[in-house]
Amino acid sequence: MSTIRDVAKLAGVSVATVSRVINQKGYIGKDTEKKIKACMAKLQYSPSSVARGLAGKKTDTIALLIPDITNPFFPEIARAVEDTASSYGITTLLGNCDENGVKELRYLDILKKRYVDGIIFAEHGLTWNEIHGILGSGMPIVSLDRAALSEEVSSVRVNHYQGAVLAVEHLLSIGCRRIAHISGPNHLITSANRNRGYTDTLRNAGCFDPDLVYEGDFSMECGMRVTEQLLKENEGVDGIFTSNDLMAVGALKTLIRSGVKVPEDVALIGFDGISMTQMVEPEISTIAQPIYEIGKQAVFQLIHQIEDRHELPEMTPRVLETKLIQRATTTRF
User: Which of 133, 165, 202, 295 has the smallest number of CB atoms closer than 10 Å to its CB?
Assistant: First the structure.
């Protein structure tokens, strides 16, 4: 492979002059620039993005770190991030952390060495001080969904508490009173806020039962397993609110296999708004997040940190709204 030194030698100029042409910095005569570009073409020389980053502190590359690529919510986020970044000439690197802190540390170390321009975190188990220590203070960062860094870090998320209130109020409105909740992991801020919304709404309605709350892990298998357990341990359950849609799909499978009529015997609602909720029968009601908009706004915030781009759209509020999508699992006639 040709190097910048090869180009400089063929053009009869210094390496610094070739570098100025590559990075479009400093004055270069038109004839000299034309000659250097001709030599680059002849040698098929293409400067690497990392090399340009070392020289110009910019690589037109960002990274997206997600906790679980098998959860359909995160590929939908990734699509939005990649689409939006690509429209501005920016490449997206994807890292799947498997909710593993050691793997996340390894990704951060690699990203630091590759000189990416910024990172979008969808979830992490590290503190802001730990991330700051690894990446340094100058790295642009945006957090979204589960990630809770600090007030000084830009973020895009929805009002998880209000979304849970919306879900439970909907179940109450169709006559449910013994409403169970399959939460996400208790250590996640999204799970905690959704659980709090569920609890407060049922307490206000005078029908909260702590025995109807089960901790889950956001997987379909967990939804199946926990639903089987709660049906065995509790009589008269007439509604289930799962903290994400994937667990709702699992819950639906168990309800149908157990001979429970949905929604006549037990109504079911999830959270997220992933497309899978429309692929099952009956279709699952959900509290939908604006998934694509979350990813898009995260990229806008990151680009605003990286450089001053006046052509970007005005920033929308950092806390976006959820909406109820009522489908067959909560439609009682």
Answer: 133
Q: Which of 262, 330, 264, 287 shows the shortest CA–CA distance to 167? A: 287
What is the C-alpha to C-alpha distance for residues 100 and 98, in angstroms, rounded to an integer? 5
d(CA 136, CA 120): 15
Write the pLDDT tens digit of every residue in 86-131: 988 899 999 998 877 788 888 888 887 767 888 998 866 666 677 7
- Tell me the two tokens of residue 251: 């819950």
What digits encode the pLDDT tens for the residues 36-51?
989 988 888 876 544 5
Give the CA angle between residues 282, 69, 65 to the nearest 5°.
Answer: 135
- Give the 3-state secondary structure of 160-174: HHHHHHHHHHHHHHC
Instruction: Please give the structure tokens belonging to residue 78.
Output: 């990734």
Q: What does the angle CA 91 – CA 92 – CA 94 come to, to the nearest 5 degrees?
A: 150
Report the alpha-carbon distance of residue 319 to residue 302 in Å, rounded: 16
Spatial contact of 87 and 312, defined as CB atoms under 8 Å apart: no
Give how far the C-alpha of residue 101 lies from the chain's centroid of Cα atoms, to the nearest Å.
17
Q: What pTM did the predictor assign?
A: 0.79
Token pair, residue 109, equals: 């170390």
How many other C-beta atoms lie within 10 A of the C-beta of residue 15? 13
Q: What proportion of the chain, given as a percentage, has pLDDT over 70?
A: 88
Question: Is residue 274 a contact partner of residue 248, using CB atoms and an 8 Å limit?
Answer: no
Residue with structure tokens 């979830």?
A: 123
Q: Report the DSSP beta bridge partners of residue 239.
A: 179, 267
| Cα 65 to Cα 108: distance, rounded to the nearest angstrom | 9
